[in-house]
Amino acid sequence: MALSDTGCKLIDNVVPKVEEFSYELNAQKDTSFVIRSKGPKTQASFTIQGEISEQAKLIWDSMPLDTIKYSSPLPVATREIVINAGTVDTTNTQENYSGLLYVKYMPSNGSTSGILKVKVKM
């Protein structure tokens, strides 16, 4: 009996807990946010929903925990998700990152309109 209880506790400790962060974005404005990873390597999945008048993009990348200073500009991300004009309902595949997840939304121009909801599941 004690062995099976210990086994269950070990399994509970190994199974990662899923966290989800939601951000509502005004499609006209550049917007950035940073999420701290839960461990050395974490998988992130992006879901983008809403409506947008013109194409935009979401760029993202990871940064080591010890390099970020919120008072200084954040680096340019190297991974990109293109958001096409119209109704948006897309999920990209999970990808690994570590440290801090830096995400920046960038409209194609100042006349882009709409509201987007970005969910990041880890």
What is the strand and helix layout of this fold?
Blueprint (H helix, E strand, L loop, with lengths): L1 H13 L5 E7 L4 E6 L5 E11 L3 E8 L15 E5 L2 E6 L3 E3 L2 E8 L6 E8 L1
Antiparallel strand pairs: 1-9, 2-8, 3-6, 3-7, 3-9, 4-5, 4-8
Describe the structure.
With about 120 residues, the protein is mainly beta. The protein has one helix at about 1-15, and strands at about 20-25, 30-35, 40-50, 55-65, 80-85, 85-90, 95, 100-105, 115-120. The strands form two sheets. Strands 1, 3, 6, 7 and 9 form a five-stranded antiparallel sheet that branches. Mean pLDDT is about 75; it is low at about 1-10.
Number of helices, counting only DSSP H or I runs of 4 residues or more? 1
What string gives the helices and strands in order? HEEEEEEEEE
Arithmetic mean of pLDDT: 77
Shape: elongated
Number of strands: 9
Extract low-pLDDT stretches. 1-12
Characterize the biggest β-sheet. 5 strands, antiparallel
Helix % is: 10-25%
Instruction: Indicate the structural class.
Output: mainly beta
Based on CA atoms alone, the radius of gyration comes out at 18 Å
Gap from first CA to last CA? 34 Å
**β-strand amount:** over 45%
